[in-house]
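Is this the right way to post structure tokens for a design question? Let me know if I should format differently. Anyway, here goes:
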């Protein structure tokens, strides 16, 4: 009986420590030290959340910059299904999907004969990438400027504002957040 009481006491104590106290301490520290990140890195626009800076959104209207394709299912950019497609370069499903994406880009901007950056036709490892390379933004710049009636310099300035360099100057690559860029385009058009 003494052993059983000790076991039950330890179970309740460890449940209290690891199931209640520790999560409350970690959550409190995150809210105190990193409130924006702890709450999902939300992007607010006109007083309400429109997305996260960490999860991509699908834009298909040619007047917007398009992000990386999503590999999540059953819907694109589904945070609950974050995964790569696991399709290899010789898989016909992957080559067909890439061909469809290339055709869509050519249909949206038939006069653009530049080489399409790979991040516009291939999904990232998570399938949720919210950013594109500066080359992918440059590829789309003329189309977006033309369809919105803006100068390329105006749009280039917005691309620069939505761009981030390497982390700590050496980690990763330069990138452009597509949602922030498209929101800035909409704001510019409202003025």
């Amino acid at each position: 009986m003494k052993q059983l009481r000790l076991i039950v006491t330890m179970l309740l104590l460890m449940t209290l420590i690891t199931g209640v106290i520790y999560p409350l301490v970690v959550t409190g520290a995150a809210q105190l030290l990193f409130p924006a990140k702890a709450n999902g890195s939300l992007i607010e626009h006109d007083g309400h959340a429109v997305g996260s800076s960490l999860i991509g959104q699908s834009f298909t209207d040619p007047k917007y910059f398009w992000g990386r394709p999503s590999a999540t299912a059953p819907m694109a950019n589904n945070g609950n299904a974050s995964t790569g497609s696991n399709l290899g370069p010789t898989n016909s499903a992957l080559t067909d999907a890439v061909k469809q994406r290339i055709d869509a880009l050519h249909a949206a901007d038939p006069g653009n004969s530049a080489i399409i950056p790979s991040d516009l036709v291939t999904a990232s490892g998570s399938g949720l990438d919210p950013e594109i390379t500066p080359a992918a933004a440059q590829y789309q710049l003329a189309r977006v400027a033309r369809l919105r009636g803006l100068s390329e310099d105006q749009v280039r300035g917005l691309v620069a504002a939505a761009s981030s360099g390497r982390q700590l100057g050496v980690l990763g690559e330069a990138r452009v957040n597509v949602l922030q860029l498209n929101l800035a385009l909409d704001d510019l058009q409202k003025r």
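Format looks fine. Someone answered above. Worth noting: The first helix runs from residue 2 to 33. Residues 104 and 170 are 34 Å apart (CA to CA).
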